[in-house]
Structure formats: structure tokens, C-alpha cells
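Researcher: Watch the backbone:
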Amino acid sequence: MAGKKKTCLIYGLLPLVSGVIVGFLSGSGNGYESMAKPPLSPPSWVFPVVWTILYILMGISICMILRKEDANEAEAKKAFLLQLVVQWGWPFLFFKWNRCLLAFAWLVGLWILIVQMIKEFAKIDKTAAYLQIPYLIWVTFAGYLNISICFLA
């Protein structure tokens, strides 16, 4: 059981810790205030608050998955890790390298991976899957912001 708790702790903290590191390395948010933004654009302080909540929900969800003894666990972990790794790329594309359209395409791919993760989680624990719905909604909203900023630039 101690091994499961350690694994849960590692997987549970991974989104939050990696999110902070990626944000720092990519310069997330740099220049956001000076960008031409569409209606419904939130102030810059909203992003770290929302992402922190989403990362915590990811950590809770993956721990819920890891606590169950289920044959689908390996696929759920793969889906979780794949979407997380892909998520790490977006801030670099958008903020650091200014590749607006590529960043949008990347978000579409991320959105598909999040849906896949939710499906894999639902096979094991529906609550863990439901906890990822805010993440899917936020990435959808991020797609709106991303493509709108591209067209307004």
C-alpha cells in the first residue's frame, strides 16, 4: 500500500509542479496584456488561478484512478501522461515562439487527448472522469482565445 501512496503522490503532484516549471520556462503570460484580445478575455491574473485549480483536479483524478485495482489502469495512466506532455508544449508555441496558428492546432490535438483521457478515466471511476470536465471546458475556451488573438494580430 505504501507503494501505491507514493505513486499517487508523484502522479498527483506532477501536473502542478510541471505546470509551474513549464510556465516559468515558456514565459507564459508574457505580453498577454499588450495583445489585441477578443470579447470575454479574462484579466491575466485569472490564468494562474484557473490552471492551479485544474492541475489540482488532475492530481486528484489520477490518484482516484491509481487507488482502484483495475485492468484499465495502464491505459488511463498513458492517456493522462500523454495529454500532460502535449499540454506542456502549448505555452512554448504561443508565448515563447509566437506560433499562433500552430498553437491553436496543438490545442485541438490536446482537446482530443483530454476527451480520450476522460473516456479512459470513466472506465475506472466516473467521478475522476467528471473532475476533468472543467479542464476540457477551459481548453475549449483557450482555443477561442488563441484563434481570436491570431485573427486580431
Remarks:
- The chain has a mean pLDDT of 95.
- The helical segments are 2-26, 46-67, 73-96, 100-124, 126-130, 133-152.
